[in-house]
């Protein structure tokens, strides 16, 4: 559905993105992540036809974003971070206006508006003035304007920004439902939202794609390959505790720091699913007091920070 090959964009001598390539099939919800200035906005603006690349190609539904931009825009629905709403208009009237702008034939506008209102759960709000709606409902109207012309792909920029937890859950469920029949690219800085909403994630850093995969598997495939962490709090001398822990097969990395009350905190990284029993036995057999042990799987946030740490520290 969306194909990107070798996409590069220079502003003067500065490369905003370099050799960006990826594809997104129909029916997939893709999370697009990266620190500020990494190239997310540039890539999304090229895909929506608002910016031309320096080199490389991008197509939507087989139409080139540069030479066939009008066809691309017909096939894309776009929701920027600030939804393009007219606060003095009523919901149905606004969506009808968007249909006109999108070139929907007059005979089909009522049906398209009804479909968008139903899809976004706005049946009881079609006559309400947009400016009087809650932020969550306004975001739903923003999503409705993005799908009212029945696009094949949706590009959503920070769709849950500023929403309360309840509104966020509702918007997340709506995006998942919309993604059943459309390609969706979702840009967000809220990693937990991407993890809960998207079946695949792209991470861009320094203008280049540095990760591509399912959120739950990225930690196993990228960076150092660490997929789990186990945290132990042990009463004992740091060097001796470290030696006991390193004797356990499967320990990939270890960081030992001082804790309160003469104890130490050891963070163990491992590819094994769970080494708590082996680590506990090693610590106790060495004569140390085990005060706490817990395991956690690395999250999308861990992967993101690992892959973008250098850029964010610059």
Please tell me how large the radius of gyration is: 24 Å
Helical/strand content category: alpha/beta
**Number of E-type strands:** 14
Strand order of the largest sheet: 6-7-8-3-9-10
| Amino- and carboxy-terminal Cα gap | 36 Å
CATH arch. level architecture of the largest domain: 3-Layer(aba) Sandwich
CATH homologous superfamily of the largest domain, by name? P-loop containing nucleotide triphosphate hydrolases
CATH C-level of the largest domain: Alpha Beta
What is the arithmetic mean of pLDDT?
Answer: 89
Strand content: 25-35%
Counted up, domains total 2
Approximate shape: elongated
Note the total helix count.
Answer: 11
Q: Helicity level, as a percent range?
A: 25-40%
Q: Which fold name corresponds to the CATH topology of the largest domain? A: Rossmann fold
What characterizes the major β-sheet? 6 strands, mixed
What is the N-to-C succession of helices and strands?
EEEHEEHEHHHEHEHEEHEHEEHEH
Unreliable stretches (pLDDT < 50, length at least 5) are none
Q: What do these coordinates show?
A:
There is one protein chain. With 314 residues, the protein is α/β, with parallel strands linked by helices. It has two domains: 2-214, 3-Layer(aba) Sandwich (Rossmann fold); 228-297, 2-Layer Sandwich (Alpha-Beta Plaits), CATH 3.30.70. The protein has helices spanning 40-47, 69-74, 91-101, 106-119, 135-147, 165-178, 191-197, 215-221, 238-246, 276-285, 300-312; strands at 2-11, 14-24, 29-33, 55-60, 63-64, 76-79, 153-157, 183-187, 200-205, 208-213, 228-235, 251-258, 263-270, 289-297. A six-stranded mixed beta sheet has the order 6-7-8-3-9-10. Strand 9 (200-205) and strand 10 form a beta hairpin. It starts with a strand and ends with a helix.
């Amino acid at each position: 559905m969306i194909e990107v090959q070798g996409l590069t964009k220079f502003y003067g001598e500065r490369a905003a993105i370099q050799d960006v390539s990826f594809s997104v099939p129909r029916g997939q919800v893709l999370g697009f992540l990266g620190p500020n200035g990494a190239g997310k906005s540039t890539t999304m603006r090229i895909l929506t036809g608002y910016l031309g690349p320096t080199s490389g190609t991008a197509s939507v539904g087989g139409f080139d974003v540069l030479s066939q931009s009008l066809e691309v825009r017909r096939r894309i629905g776009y929701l920027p971070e600030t939804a393009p709403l007219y606060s003095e208009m009523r919901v149905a009237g606004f969506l009808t206006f968007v249909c006109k702008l999108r070139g929907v034939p007059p005979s089909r506008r009522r049906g398209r508006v009804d479909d968008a209102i139903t899809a976004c759960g706005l049946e009881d709000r079609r006559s309400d003035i947009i400016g009087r709606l809650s932020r969550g409902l306004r975001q739903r109207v923003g999503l409705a304007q993005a799908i009212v012309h029945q696009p094949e792909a949706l590009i959503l920029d920070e769709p849950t920004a500023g929403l309360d937890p309840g509104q966020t859950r509702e918007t997340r469920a709506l995006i998942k439902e919309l993604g059943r029949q459309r390609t969706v690219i979702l840009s967000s800085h809220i990693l937990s939202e991407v993890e809960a909403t998207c079946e695949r994630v792209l991470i861009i850093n320094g203008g280049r794609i540095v990760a591509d995969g399912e959120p739950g598997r990225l930690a196993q495939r990228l960076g150092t390959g660490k997929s789990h962490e186990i945290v132990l709090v042990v009463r004992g001398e740091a060097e001796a505790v470290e030696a006991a822990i390193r004797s356990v097969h499967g320990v990939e990395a270890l960081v030992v720091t001082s804790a309160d009350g003469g104890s130490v905190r050891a963070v163990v990284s491992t590819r094994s699913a769970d080494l708590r029993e082996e680590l506990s036995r090693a610590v106790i057999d060495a004569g140390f007091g085990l005060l706490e042990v817990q395991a956690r799987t690395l999250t999308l946030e861990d992967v993101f920070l690992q892959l973008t740490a250098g850029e964010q520290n610059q």
